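Subject — a protein and its fold
Fields — amino acid sequence, structure tokens
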Amino acid sequence: MVSRRPVRAMVALLALPLLAGLGYALRWRSNPSPCPYAQRHAIDLPRPVITRSRLRDVLKPRPGERLLEVGPGTGYYTGTVARAIEPAGTLHAVDVQSEMVEHLRTRMRQEGESNVEPVRGDARSLPYPDDTFDAAYLVLVLGEIPDRERALDELERVLKPDGRLVVGESLPDPHFVGFEGLRRRIEQRGLAFDARAGTRVGYFARFDASPAAESIDSVE
């Protein structure tokens, strides 16, 4: 009779990393914080659902606009949006980590994007006056902010009366924010849901400060 002990031991050894990873994710979810700069390579991996082109389609950036990106990290989306608002538009990219800000500044310089202004700042207290931006967006960021309600208040404050806000979320991000809860929170602030694109586990949603005539939901 073959002993099952070695098999059980092997299964236990294989399960340990999975359990450790799950425990880390649960702790991270219950203690919101941005992705550490030391793990920056992970945030530059391909994002098959929340793609750059899909963000551009939902955000609809136009030449000459003044836009805000909250939590750009290393700039996965920044260059794409910056090019869409050239030549006279400006993209302000606010990140709470100074290392990310410097990394982004270097990357934009290397890519030849001169209309991006990296800024160190906190989403809960944005360093801008009221009614500053034509549009704002944040991707895989809202759930990392300890006080999401205050951050949403700030985003609503800095948007122009006809501005628009785009939020992107996707699993397996441990800080994933579901669409229905997101919609409820944002509509409480007077912004109207206008469009959503993606899948049920990864999406971009746009909200308008001025009510939209028709809402579009293209979730697959």
